[in-house]
Design a protein that fits this description.
uracil phosphoribosyltransferase activity; GTP-binding; binds uracil; alpha/beta; 31% helix; Rossmann fold; 7-stranded parallel β-sheet; PRTase_dom; PRTase-like; Upp_B; 208 residues; two-stranded antiparallel sheet
């Protein structure tokens, strides 16, 4: 079963209060999403593999360790893009892919309308971003599409997670760990997380 990590860090909790506040405007909202994403990324990268290297300091040789893994960031369009800057700040050598999905109105099946990934994505640890893990339908499908392309190592990063979404990922992709800044107990009839923070994409891009 995949792990669900929900941050209890005071820094993240304070920033979540600002994100949830309906008076927080787009500019501030976007900046805070990036900051929370960066703090979550710090938690989600704790177990990355390390390699030993020797570095010459101005004084002597030092035994050091550096991250020994190829990384990728893949935001799910559109709201996932809001988390990219925060992650790239911590992982500047990561490649960035994008994946876009919509739900077919008749079959209700997720259809991929855009996908551009690093050519060697199957060799990379992929940090998949979507701020709101609500029903989990989109994330489940996005993970499936990444696996179809040979990706073996996926970590899901979201700002807010809800029980339905977490359950769906844990049941369908038990190898994918989920990192969230907060966990809310329910969805409303429109599939919005309650109390949530509203429509993350609209608030990030000012399209409300
Ligand atoms: N997507 C959002 O932007 N907000 C929600 O509450 C659920 C899905």
């Amino acid at each position: 079963m995949s792990k669900l990590f929900v941050s209890e860090h005071p820094m993240i909790q304070s920033k979540m209060a600002m994100l949830r506040n309906k008076e927080t405007g787009s500019k501030e909202f976007r900046e805070i999403i990036g900051e929370v994403a960066m703090l979550l990324c710090y938690e989600a990268t704790r177990e990355l593999p390390l390699a030993d290297i020797e570095v010459e300091t101005p004084v002597a040789m030092a035994q050091c360790r550096v991250i020994d893994a190829k990384l990728a960031i893949v935001p799910i369009l559109r709201a996932g893009i809001g988390m990219t800057d925060g992650l790239i700040n911590l992982m500047p050598t990561a490649k960035i892919g994008h994946i876009g999905l919509y739900r077919d109105p008749e079959t209700l099946n997720p259809v991929e309308y855009y996908c551009k990934l690093p050519s060697d994505v199957e060799e990379r640890i992929v940090f998949l971003t979507d701020p709101m893990l609500a029903t989990g339908g989109t994330a489940e499908a996005a993970i499936g599409f990444l696996k179809d392309r040979g990706v073996k190592n996926i970590v899901m990063l979201c700002i807010l997670a809800a029980p339905d979404g977490v359950k769906k990922i844990q049941e369908t992709h038990p190898d994918v760990d989920i990192y969230a800044a907060a966990y809310d107990g329910m969805l409303n009839d429109h599939g919005y997380i309650v109390p949530g923070l509203g429509d993350a994409g609209d608030r990030i891009f000012g399209t409300k």
